[in-house]
What we know:
Blueprint: E1 4-8, H1 18-27, H2 36-45, E2 50-59, E3 62-76, E4 79-86, E5 102-103, H3 111-119, E6 125-131, H4 135-147, E7 157-162, H5 174-189, E8 194-198, H6 204-219, H7 230-245, E9 249-256, E10 259-269, E11 272-280, H8 289-303, E12 308-313, H9 317-321, E13 325-328, E14 330-335, H10 345-358
Amino acid sequence: MSMTASVIDTHDGLDGLEDRWERLRKECGAGIYSSYFLTRSWLENYRAVSSPRIVLVEEHGELVGLAPLAVHTHRSGRLSVNVLALAGRVAGRLFISPSTILLRPGRDDALEPMLKAMRGMDWSFLSAIYMEDIHPASRFIEVAGRTWRPEPHPENSLVILSLPEGDISAMYEAGARRSFEKRSRALERGGHKVSLRKVASEDLDRAVETYARQHIERWENKGGSYFRNPENVLFLRSALKEAALRNKSFAHEILIDGEVAAQNFGFVEGDRAYSYRLGMNDAFARYSPGWMVKHFGMTDLRDNGVIKCDFGVGEEKFKTMMGGTTIPLIGFRASRGLMSLLSRAQSIKERFERREHSSSRADVGPNA
């Protein structure tokens, strides 16, 4: 039997796929944002705006390739365009990124049936951006480039921290370390009690509601908060709970005099942690509690076996000030059909790109 490609376009179609998906993901070295549970949680929570188009490539019943795709509609004026993209990327919704194409090692031949299935879908824009630079992604870009004409795409990087033994602040830039120590002394002189709380799974509802409320308060006069959209609150809660069921989550809070001053939510797999959402209470902004929740949270993660901490997509200054190393991400974009001929296409794509890029930063900084 030769390789066959099939497309899952319903949520129920994902039932029973987790074990095979996860085995393939780990074989090719893809990170947690390409996982079954995060992809499914995202698709189910945002079903009103995005629909699954998961491509499975199988041979003799074995899964050798998988493209975690979804389709959504991008609107520009009166024009609507179907966008085929990696699941987890719709403007105004929480992203899961970087995700990637999955291939079993040595099975680059799975790309041909995968791309054939993609050619049969209804789309005008293809967007596979912000992928980890691993072999399946780079080969996908190479082979897709022979099928569709590659177009410019937004570039970005991932920031990774290698956690040291001893004091976590040893990896900070000198100025950042002095600032952190100064704020810590100010809290001590003021008689404030500072503590790290590890949020239990049964307390996640409360923690996420606190996060959403503080995000809304912080951004209300700065263009508004996307946590006014209940879909985003529901997804964050769902993603963390699904991760907790698999022992793959962390949730940290810094308390100052018993009040939540900052929070950091994320995922853990093996010796790697993924910082996903960081928030703070503006009432404590002068103490930079975002730095504190990162500092004490990374200490806790390190003490529990984590070696590397993924600070997510985006090169915000605080990430390198904390000692992070930037790793470029890769991507592929293409268009087809009438869109490639319309004179308006370029401006539409540019607007889509700006919206896509502006919402890409999941871990937006200690003071954001």
